[in-house]
Amino acid sequence: MKKNEEYIVTCIDENRMGSGIVKIENQVVFVPDLLKDEVCKIKIVKVKKNYAFGIILDLIQPSNYRIKPLCPYKTCGGCQYMNVDYVYQIEMKSRQMKELFHRNVKEEIQVLHTIESINPLYYRNKAQFPVQVKDGQILMGFYRKHSNDIVSCNECKIQSKEINNIYQWLQSHISIQQAKELRHIFIRASKNESQVVFIGRDDSKFQKLSNQLMDTFPKVTSILFNFNNRKDNVILGEEYKILSGRDFIIEECMGNKIQLHFKSFFQVNPIQMEILYQKAIELANLKKDERCIDLYSGTGTIALAISKYVKHVTGVEIVKEAVDNANKNKELNHITNCDFICQDATEFAHEHKNDNIDVLFVDPPRKGMTKQGIEDIVTLKPNRIVYISCNPDSLCRDLNVFDQNGYECQIIQPVDMFCYTTGIENIALLVKK
Ligand code: SAH
């Protein structure tokens, strides 16, 4: 097989990155956007030692699950499944999760069907739009796939309508002078409140715009300027200034009020978040006399939600603003059996060896946990561990380490938090062997 050759092929499967898999002369070729059973003319664009990449030239026989893309922007690279029927997205994710965990962890794990979203569009509550000025024009929107070019969009189908409205207003009200000072604009929208953070070098030209924004959008309660002079591509800087309102918004989660600082993590799909936590609580089978730990606790959403089912919960989180939020949230909701500690999760586990707790919740960032971290965590000797993960690959790796350290994964529940994209959240229930 050589570059630029053309073939007529039938797709045999999809991978988890949104590509179809075809076989030519017994070699695997990945073709972006191709679905199982589709017949297609492809061109080979890259040949590696054990596999190759192709692109679709002509779709001869489309899948029944292919739909007209809901979004006109093909180039932003955000949604891999904009042209795939939602029911089939769920089927694909379910099939892929079963295969992944059975093949890479254990055949015996019960991998449940993916829980779909009743609201698969306009769900995201957070956006970070890059801003640039090029040839006297303001560019703001999303990065093009694998690049730093900005694709300007009028609307994003997976962002909340409030975020789309604020974004459109900003597009038509920001001046070139203002745009030159900016690197990104961060917008977060809760059920009743929204927050806008201008991220850049100099805040001096933003007060009037901020006042106007506040007057135009009644839900906006927090507008900030975050100073970022960094040379790397980290989006947020340390220092910030309040332009209007306050530095947090209030969200609701499982009946609790959640104060949310802009530096604190929060799940991006608020509807599915509650379904995720409800499922996690069910799987944990909590009892009133049990002591729990919530590692990587963020603003305390999980700890506060489980507090009513157990005796005591300790939340551990490394971002100070998130721990401040969690403590405030405990107060706001009149909860007395939770404590929050600002510490590295692994360090905490190391210091609390042999504490004998009953149930452990872990919800780490994408990279998952370290081997040492897991070895320390098992010394807390929980009976059950509920591991919530947004990255199936790091979850697989970590489940194997847990297994070597006496904890067996019994059930995995995938939840579709990232509809129209390849992303998937999983809850894993582990029990002491
Ligand atoms: N459970 C929360 C947050 C999950 S996101 C929720 O669902 O809202 C993961 C969290 O881990 C983030 O809040 C992040 O700040 C925190 N974190 C990252 N590294 C950490 C570490 N080494 N120790 C403790 N917390 C950490």
From TrEMBL:
Binding-site residues for S-adenosyl-L-methionine, renumbered to this chain: 267, 296, 317, 363
PROSITE patterns per the UniProt record, alphabetical: SAM_MT_RNA_M5U (PS51687), TRAM (PS50926), TRMA_1 (PS01230)
Record protein name field: 23S rRNA (Uracil(1939)-C(5))-methyltransferase RlmD
SUPFAM superfamilies from the UniProt entry: Nucleic acid-binding proteins, S-adenosyl-L-methionine-dependent methyltransferases
EC number(s) stated in the UniProt entry for this protein: 2.1.1.190
Family as reported in the entry's similarity comment: Belongs to the class I-like SAM-binding methyltransferase superfamily. RNA M5U methyltransferase family.
Keywords: Methyltransferase, S-adenosyl-L-methionine, Transferase
Organism: Floccifex porci
Boundaries of every TRAM domain copy: 1-58
GO biological process, one term: rRNA base methylation
Enzyme class: transferase
Catalytic residues (positions): 390 (nucleophile), 390
InterPro entries the record matches: MeTrfase_TrmA_AS, NA-bd_OB-fold, SAM-dependent_MTases_sf, TRAM_dom, U5_MeTrfase_fam
CDD domains: AdoMet_MTases
Residue stretches in coiled coil: none
GO molecular function: rRNA (uridine-C5-)-methyltransferase activity
